[in-house]
Request: fold
Amino acid sequence: MTQGWSAQDIPDQGGRTAVVTGANSGIGLVAARELARRGARVVLACRSEARGRQAEARVRDEVPGAEAEFRRLDLADLASVRDFAATFPYERLDLLINNAGVMALPYGRTADGFETQFGVNHLGHFALTGLLLPRLRAAGAARVVSVSSGMHALANIDLRDLNSERGYRRWVAYGRSKTANLLFIHEFARRLRAAGSDVVAAAAHPGYAATNLQTQGVRMEGRRRAERVVALGNRVLAQPAEAGALPTLYAATAPGVGPDSFTGPSLMMWRGAPARSWRAKWTLNDVAGERLWEASERLTSVTYDLP
Reply:
């Protein structure tokens, strides 16, 4: 990969339509803004209408003439995912960035009864991608980029206990959900290749980037001291969201990005220009990828439209 790659290296995106989930803040907002800056029509898919509208206004303020619009999407509710896809107003979709996520939350369940981290980070995006696949196929050489994490190394998925019903540890559940992101891309890339499709499925991770993600769990529990410690780490150790978004933007736009690639920061998976990133061997397991895919189809009732 090109050493020193930055947002200025994003190719022209004129005439292209992109969806970025979780684009109201952090790396999602940066990715949406930079794609708009390069001429893409960007849909900011966010759960909160208030924050989504604020993000839309911010992109328009920072990028004069930007084509940016908010559309509501709650990945913790499959009815919302279906509504988003059914009312999506464009016939083709060139780029889908599955960025939204939650991290290390107390145990909870989505509207459909799934453990929250698995439900939001994996199943919501699995359903969204499948429902939008006809629009992606209509665009030809479209890309799907799922944002995983170096923390996937914390745990492989447990196909016998996808909803952590036998025991819940928040960081293990987070690691499993991020492993699921990589297994999804692995199996999706395989199926696209078998179908002769030009759609590219790739993955990225931001390294340690200062976003709201780190403080969600401790804030929900009212652990104010822990929240202050996490906030201090974001200020002192983490790279800014602008840098954290670069691997995602690279995977989404750079020429030559291959199927099932995993892009992250070049320096010890923490910071630096985008580069090929290390991934645990279990994220390349064909059998696990296929079994997770089949389970995801069953749980979401979404079947992918591939020949």
